[in-house]
Structures are given as C-alpha cells and as structure tokens.
Amino acid sequence: MRGLFVCLALLAIALGAFAQEPGQAQIAGTGWARFTRYIKDENPTDNSFQLARGYFTYYYKFSNSVSTRFTVDMFSDATASHGAGLKLKYGYLDFVMPVKDLKLEAGIIKNYFGTIYDWDYVTIEKALDDKESVVGSSDIGLALAGFLPAGWGEYQVGMYNGEGYNKPGTKTDLYPLFTANARVIPIPGVTLGGSVRYGMEEDTLIGAMLADSTIDTTLKDMPRMEVSGVLRLSYKFVDIWGQYINKSWQDLYPSDSTAKFNASGFMIMPTLTMPVEALDDLQLVFRYDFWDPKTGEDFENNSYSRLTAGFNYFLTRDSGGKPTTRVTLNWTQKSYENKDLADGDTGFKKPETDISLQLRWDFKSNPF
Length: 368
Prior knowledge:
This protein is mainly β and 368 residues long. The chain has a single domain, classed as Porin. It has two helices and 18 strands. A hairpin with a 3-residue loop joins strand 16 (342-343) and strand 17.
C-alpha cells in the first residue's frame, strides 16, 4: 500500500509541470465515429455511419481556488435542420473549500450516482443508469465532492433540478432532488460504492378511472427514490464491474389509495487486458445487463436483458499511459423475458442485435 502512495506522489510531481496556473486555459476534445448494423430476428434492418459524439471542452483557472469548465456535445442528428445536434453537457465553477480535498461545484455538473459519473465507455453502450433513464449523466445544481483520507475513497453530496442536462427547466418545481454517493477502497483492488437520490414530483396527474368512467384529474406531490450499489474487483489483468439499481415511485390509483412501483436491474462487466506484451493494447470486454422496468404481479413478463461481447484496441497513448485513440468492436443482443409477448399488434418480441465498430479519439492540450 505504501508503494502505491509513493507511485501516486511521483506521478503528481511529474504531472505538476503541466498543471494549469492561474490565468491559464486548456482545451480538450473527444470524438466517436461509428458504424452500426442492426439485426432483428436474424434479418438485417439497417446500416448506418454516424458521428455519435463530439465533445469540446474549455477549462480556465481564475485562481488557485476557482476554476471553470464548459463542455459542448455535438453529434449526428437526422431530425436537426443541418444534420447535427448541439447540447451543453457541462458548465460550472469549481471552488476549492477550506476543508482538505473538498471542492464545491455549481452549474451543470456531474450526477454523482452509480457508475454514470465516471463511466468511460469500455463498451459502446451507455452505463446502465443512463441507458434505462434512471438518471442523466449531468444536471443543473450544486455538489460537494471530496476524497476520504489516506486514499480510502471518495464522497459527494448534491442538490439538483432533477431533469438532466437534456431537458433543462422541464421538471423544475418546489422540490429539488438530493443525491449522496460514496465509494470506499477497503483493500487494494476492491471498491465498494453506494448512491441514493430522493425527491418529490410536484403536481403528479393521478389519471385513474373513476366509478363514473371519468378520469381523475387530481394533482398531488409524490415521492421518488433511486438507489444503487457498485462493486469493482481489479487484479492484474482482470477488472470486473458490478452494479445494482432500484428505482421506486408512487402514484395514486385510484385517488384514495397509493400504488408503489419499482424498476430494478443489474450489470456485470468483466474485462481482460491481454497479459502478453505483444497484445497488451488489446482489451476483451463482456457485459450482461438485466432490467425490469416495472415489477409486481400486474407487470409480469416485461423484463429484458442485453449481452455484449467485443474488444478495445488502443492505438496510441499519452505520456501517462492513458489511451488517446482506440478501435472498439461490440456485438450486442437484447432479449425479452417473454418471447411470445405481442409487439404492438404486428408480431412478437424477438431478439434485437446490433454490431458496432467505433473509432474514438481523445486529446487535451498543454496549458496556455
């Protein structure tokens, strides 16, 4: 353990030469060019090339205690007038607090929940939190983020609008959303994490059918909560991520009773970096997701799973060993719990498969 801290200290000294000074800026970017072939019930349905993601980030340091970050997200979008979409992904101020290893973030910030806030897209697919719309990767709000002493882990507490960065202002009401997250490292190679989000939905439409066959238009504030547990095991060439998520909310049905609903699922993702020098830039990836969008006796046979297999091949790395260009190939199949469940009025829920090949590049300038 002591050797690990010595290595980290030496790395910090080496990187210090490239750290921002007050009055300096940095720019960074990420691009994903992707080809995907879609298959349903063994029949190809579509092929497409797209620029799936293009991040551009600007950093500026006002002083040793105040800095800022702006990130825009550019991507191919057939519905946009010029074939491309643009979103503001991050935009916040960082304040270094008097408490050691603690900072305050204010603006469009990361959602510190589950695996979404540090998801590095080892697979092309999003984190389970994001894919199943449990939480967006960023939101407007405030958060305190810090590190535990002696390298024991990290923690964050935040207050957000609750709608995510995709739909700013659409769910603002009397109630902010509160988030708490922590990860601890009890022994090297083992990480345990837990997250919770809690808030109220203002003016929820009941929408129940009343005795006189009319619709109940009563509005009432109702609670919502999401929890997540994270486990990471890392040893030499093997890295395994596991995550469990539960989402709960309430509706009135009918207006004189309360119905509680849950959605839940999990992800398991092992990776293997080849333990051969000639192949040490090759990473094999496997991932299994399970999701039940609504649990209970009245909502049976509606769960599904996704199985992903593929690899990352790292073409170039920076001076610290972080990949800067990579090729990713993923095969993913989505299967439904009840294969005979009607798919609308036209067929059945059949497996859906896609094969994606992606080129990704990342860069970050020296301070200027």
